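Hi L., both proteins are below.
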Amino acid sequence: MGRPSKYTDEFRRDAVGLVQSSGRPINEVARDLGVSHETLRGWVRKAEAPARPASPGELSADERDELRRLRRRVADLETEKEILRKAAAYFAKEMGR
């Protein structure tokens, strides 16, 4: 899993909107926003790319995000379950003394 982005989705949308509505070059907008021009160029390309329909069996971006979130949640719950199992075993042992 990659590192979390330091830019919010709202900031990205606003930056792309600024490029699209101002007619200014990406380099200039990126400099004004304090963002790498390559980063901003990638955001613009992604925003302008036609949405391609998912082929059968292929997950959409939203589904991939949800799957990633759910897998993280399952891992957290499994960790919590293991901690509770160990605590229950410890207290059962202590009660038996």
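That was the first. Here is the second:
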Amino acid sequence: MESRPKIYFAGAISAGRERQTVYAEMVHFLESLHAEVLSAHVASAEVLEHEAKLTAGEIFERDMRLIENCDGMIAEVSRPSLGVGYEIATALMLWRPVLGLCEQGTFLTRMLTGNSHPKLQIQFYGPDNNWQEAIREFCQQLKPASIGPLYA
């Protein structure tokens, strides 16, 4: 029996929640593929209320631990977010595959579009939800992570 891919899903939280419904669609789609979404809370409409109960240190340690334990990261990057950028950089430093999804017509920072890291893929998607095929292919290519923890 194949193991379920462990996905860290990243999306803007404190930088703005206008894409929350897209995050929820993506997380739901990942779950329909039997992926284990380690950070499904990012897609919740109530995430700000839940995060307010945690300290900044608790959030940082939780998210770093989740990134360490993921097989790959999917980041919806249409809304600029310092936190998401930090998470992507951390995942790439740990040699975790990263799929960045961005809505067509959105200016995406050249720090991502110009990044030639072999574990980074950027996919622009349109209103026809062609992000679904990109997610499906990404998950099919994942292998379990084997690098030890960065943060203990």
